[in-house]
Each structure stands twice: as C-alpha cells, then as structure tokens.
Amino acid sequence: MGDQPASTSHTPILAPLDWEYAPSRESADLVSIGDRYGVFVDGDFRPPLSKKWFETINPATEDVLAEAPLAGERDVDRAVQAAKKAAGPWAKLAPAERAKYLFRIARMVQERSRELAVLETLDGGKPIREARDVDVPLVAAHFFYHAGWADKLEYAFAGVDPKPLGVAGQVIPWNFPLLMLAWKVAPALATGNTVVLKPAETTPLTALHFAQITAEAGLPPGVLNVIPGAGDTGASLVGHPDVAKVAFTGSTEVGKLIQRRLAGSGKRLTLELGGKSAHIVFEDAPLDQAVEGVVNGIFFNQGHVCCAGSRLFIQESIQDVFVGKLRDRLQTLRVGDPMDKNTDVGAINSAAQLEKISELVDSGVEEGAEMFQPDCALPSRGFFFKPTLFTGVSQSHRISQEEIFGPVLSTMSFRTPDEAIEKANNTPYGLAAGVWTTKGSRILWMADRLRSGVVWANTYNKFDPTSPFGGYKESGFGREGGRHGLASYLDLSSVR
Ligand code: NAP
Ligand code: MG
Question: Cβ < 6 Å from ligand 1: which residues?
C-alpha cells in the first residue's frame, strides 16, 4: 500500500526486475496460458478421467482465461496412488538430494517470477504489485528455506528419529493461490512426504504452471500431483484412505466438516481457518505510520487475507484524529485494474465473494454503523468493491463478529489496555493481532494476553518462512512455517 507495501521482513531474494522500463500496464502477453489444462498426475498433464472441465475467469474483466480439469473421484484415486507409489523412493532418497530438487524449484520460481506474478493477478484479481513484490518472492523463499531443512531434520528434532508420514492431501483457498501452495508443498517435500494438492476453483492456474516447473526441475513423477476441481474433489481427497496427512487452509465452516470427517481415522490434520483479527492503536503510537499499517492490514489483497486486521480498536483520546487521517488516506487509494502497477486495491476474487461482502456491508448500515467510502469510480466490468470504513460499530454487530474477507474495516474504541484486550479477544477466532505503541513493555504485556497465533508490533502483514503461522480457537490448529511447521509433516514417535 503506498509507501509501505506488505512485504517480506527479510531482504528480498528475488533479483529485482527491470520494472522501470516496462510499460506501466503489465502485459498479459508475458504468460502463455493454455486453452485447456489436464490434471498433473504422476509427472505429466493428463486429461481428467472425469472428462469434465470448468472455466476459470479473470475477475477483473470476467473474461474466460482457460478451462481447468474438474478432477473426480477416479482422478483423486489415480493421483493418490501415484503419490503412494512415489512415497517410498522419495522418503529413502538421501535428504541432501531431496534438498537439491527444492533448491532447483526455488531458483526456477525466481526465474519465472514474472510469468507467475502475471498469471496470479489474471486468475485471482490481486494487484500485480503485490503478486510481484510479496507473493512470488515469498514462494521462492519458502522453497529455499525448506530446502535448507531437508538434511537437518535430526537437528531440528533432537533425540527422535523423524520419519515422513506418506501421502499428504492438501487443499488450499484462492486468496494466495501460489503462496498457500508453497506453505504446504515445500515442508511436505522437504520432510520426505509426497503430495496431492487441490487448488481452489477460482484460481487453479498458478498451481498448474508450478507443476510444470517441478517437472522441468526433474522432480520424480508422483512426488507432486495437482488436481484442480470443486469442493467435492477436496472432500474425496481428504477422505481417501491412503492419505496419511491432511493440510487444509480455508473457511472455518469447511474446516469443521473435515475435522468431523477425519475424527478417528488416524490421519494427521492441520487446519488454517478464518480470522477476525484486531488491530489496536494506542494514543502514544506514531499515528501516520499506524495509519499506513492499518490500511495495509485491511486493504492488502482486497482484504482477502485470513489474518486481515479487520477490527480496528483506537484509544479513545485519539479516535477522531485517527479516523480523520484514515479517511484522508482511503481517499488516495487507487482501486481498479489489477494489472496496473499503480493499483492499490484490485478485483474481488469472484461474484460470490462480492455478494458476500455487499451483504455484510449492508448489514452494517442496517444495524446502525456509519459507513464511509471514498469517491472513486469502479470499473464497469469485473468484480470490485470500494474500500470501506465503518465507525460507530458495536461488538454485537455482524461486521465486528463475522469474517468479511473483503476491503472493509470496522472501527471501535477503548480506554485502557485491559479493555483493549477484552474487546480484541471477544471473537471466536484467534489468528492474528497488531499493536501500535511506542512502549516496549506494553507490547509484551499485550502480546501475552492476546489470544492469537501471531502478534505484530508496529507493523502488520509481515510474513517469513522462518516464522510459524497458525491460529487458536476457530482459526484452526497446527502451525505452518518454521520448525513447528516441519513437525506437522513428521512422525516424531520413535526415539533415536
Ligand atoms: P473454502 O470454501 O473453505 O475453500 C477452501 C478450499 O477447500 C477450496 O479449495 C475449496 O474448493 C475446498 N473445499 C470446499 N469444500 C470442501 C470440502 N467439503 N472438503 C474439502 N475441501 C473443500 O474457503 P475459501 O472461501 O476458498 O477461502 C477463504 C477462507 O480461507 C477464509 O475463511 C480465510 O480466512 C481462510 N484462509 C485461512 C488462511 C490461514 O492460514 N488461516 C489462509 C488463507 C485463507 P472450491 O474452491 O472448489 O470451493
Ligand atoms: Mg480465476
């Protein structure tokens, strides 16, 4: 966002591209999109056994981009069998050799970063600046980081003999299609598991191009399989008897279904679910920086972020000043064509998501909150929503309780740190929180009491592969990233 984009907290490892000299609107010609894709199973693209395909569109134009295969039950089974066959040799491969594949994949993602960024933006609607500067560099970073772990697992888990689990069935959402793939595929492969991955229905393309990269990297057939499809595809994957580990990122509703379904099955499960994260600004905070952090926290990726700072708590003494600054800043956000490098807020991912956002925003107005939206024109085609700020929100309003997953911020106030904690924790979710204050002791005091997997201090939406990410309560369980994330893919029960 503006001067402070969400970014990696480490030095970017992606060689900077020559954007200066590129035309100001990124060209869709940078990526060659097939008309019709197959499922990627056992090292190759194959027509789906279901003989069914579905269209994936560009949500910024509603144009059809390509046809993706709709994997059915037999496709799921074929992919799981391929992964099962590959699991033994992959697990037995010398860990340093496994690492070489991951390093190679990381390098190839860097080399093809422009193609992947453009494809991610076309298929999902996120601003090209974010796909280019955040998503794709982080994808490479995850593969580099996990490549480094592959031959050091015995040091990560001293005293035990870490063993892979077998076939991992992974189901991911549409908000960070390639990054969620990286969060799941990199640790699974580094720890010696094989994978069947189901991307989200509205964003299958980068996962398919990534599959092609792994084939070009020489990854043995069956180690990674990608089967696009619908909810039913995901359901048959997680329920398949030969899947030993299920990793799911998506809504709390579907996460609960999966948890119930898997109860007693002996499968290992991690769930990364929804959130309604609190962003807390104290009166002593550097206000202009806090405004940037809050804006980034909610409008990054159109608010399609599980850890979006969607509830803002402002200390009462600065409430009017802070809201005034926020309104001024919203007025300057550029909403529109995601392929324009100056765009701050791109397209809403789908018509269904746009409807969900609109319905919740209407409920905010009906329940008596005051809405502010900047005067900006929206494109006539595609799915767009104006950045929206609510004041006068009460904790019982739906807009302060339910995950909107869109560019909508609900603001409330507090007087004391205790009150801020009480209000921030008053949610079924527990994914992330942000605190803005110049007092170090207060940051620690707050971090101790906030019931959320991540607490950012004087920043927001910083991601790094070394740092475990995950939730409490209805935001799920298990961690992705860091040493904790490796543990989710290992059997640590045998003592060395
Ligand atoms: P979703 O509807 O739960 O879908 C997620 C994935 O699950 C999609 O691939 C979906 O396929 C598939 N799916 C649907 N029904 C299924 C079933 N019965 N069994 C197995 N898989 C099934 O969620 P979404 O709307 O795509 O994503 C948004 C949600 O993800 C938000 O709630 C957000 O907070 C959460 N999220 C969490 C994190 C985190 O790390 N905690 C990160 C990103 C997003 P289809 O696409 O075909 O429906
Ligand atoms: Mg799409």
Answer: 171-175, 198, 200-201, 230-231, 234-235, 238, 249-251, 254, 257-258, 272-275, 306, 403, 405, 431, 471, 475-476
Percent share of the chain, pLDDT over 90: 92
| Predicted TM-score of the model (pTM) | 0.94
Residue 12 has pLDDT above 90, yes or no: no
CATH class of residue range 18-273+475-491: alpha beta
- From ligand 1's centre to the CA of 249, what distance in Å? 6
Q: Which CATH class is domain 278-465?
A: alpha beta
- Residue spans per domain, the chain: 18-273+475-491, 278-465
219-271 tens-digit pLDDT: 999 999 999 999 999 999 999 999 999 999 999 999 999 999 999 999 999 99
Specify the residue for token string 């005051």: 370
CA of 203 to the centre of ligand 2 (A): 5
Using pLDDT thresholds of 50, 70 and 90, give the confidence band for residue 25. Answer: low
Atom of ligand 1 nearest to the CA of 252: 32
More confident position, 24 or 245: 245
- The mean pLDDT of the chain is 94
| Domains 18-273+475-491 and 278-465 are alike in CATH topology | no
**Amino acid in position 372:** F
Tell me the per-residue pLDDT of 37-60, one tens digit each, with 9 for 90 and over: 999 999 999 999 999 999 999 999
Q: Are 171 and 234 in contact (CB under 8 A)?
A: yes
Cα of 250 vs centre of ligand 1, distance in Å, is: 3
